[in-house]
Write a structure and sequence with these properties.
About 35% of the residues lie in helices and about 20% in strands. The chain has about 425 residues and is α/β, with parallel strands linked by helices.
Length: about 425
Amino acid sequence: MINAERYKSKRIIVVGLARSGQACANLLCELGALVRVTDLQDNETIRAAGVQLRSRGVEVELGGHSSDFVKGCDLMVISPGVMPNAQPVLWAQDQNIPVISEIEFAFGICPADVIAVTGSSGKTTVTTLIGKMIEAGGQRAFTCGNIGVPFCAQVARMRKGDYVSLEVSSFQLERTVNFKPKIALILNFARNHLDRHKDMEEYLNAKKRIFRNQDGDDYLILNADVPVLKEAAAEAKSRVIYFRAGDGLNPNQAAVASVGSVLGIDKDVVMKVFRDFKCIEHRMEFVAEVNKVKFINDSKATLADSTIWALENINSPVILIAGGRHKGVDYSLIGPSARGKVKELIVIGEAKENIINDLKGALKIDEASSLQEAVQKAFSRASPGDCVLLSPMCSSFDMFSSYEERGRAFKESVRKLAASV
């Protein structure tokens, strides 16, 4: 690690005790910081994390925030789920305490070259493929970030000459200061996260922070088919490269191939990585076939665009399960792809009414009170040869702690169904 000494004996508070917060707090302990953590929640998982951190001398506050806990700190590091107007952030601002994101902290001590990937959809697939491609080309790569493995959990293992394939969300980019990836990718841009950002302009500005600090020695890779991204290129000081689908490559593969070209990785190596690549868990993941009905887990699809991609890559009639917490998505966008393919839509979660209003008259729609009930209803409406697809178009936080938990719940419901028929 580099610059690690700057944190020794500093009083640092971490807000949010999910995966990235835990990893950040543990790393700060290793660097000799005086660490505090605070979380609004108080549940079994959070308490277990608190016990582990207390054993390292960390001060832990659960079930709420207090101003005294923030007072006197030198730095605040916030997890992605912490809102910009969260009370601890406001207290820190009042006390002139700098507030940064977990990726900003990890970047500041990272000796490796960072390849950062953002966009409204496709981030996890592209981030994973870039890591695999670099390894296939003979270099060490760490795949982390919003993909599920925190940057802070990996950075201590990194050396100069390594690469980091880093998935970053708009939430993580909001509180960056010096974040400067060697290669930055913006895959696409679609209506999303309007429960967090006040409008699309604010959402786009958060995304553009990925290249804000780049210079002429860095690269910015953009989707040539997204006009708003081509316009954003005028603000970049880095070398801009455009990608688009074609020559047998889908947009995600084209983006990865562009990175391979910058890094000088042989095209045959890149193509072999594409051929060998298996699906990511919770992204178009085949779960089971029950009485000739296939079940596909696409829990990672939290946008209409992601569900459109799923529908266009399934060659059978579909019973679609969707819903969760509304993020300002326009669900009517799936209409053209769903028409003639989706036999029925079963909606769940807080966004039920939003989805019904957007797709009323376009699709046959039913409701379910739980994911398990939705799976049972979908199976009862399906015919042999059909596909039951969980592709929610929503975040998971109304019913589950993450899209991973939602995907696992779907798979468990399918397993119980299979055992009962």
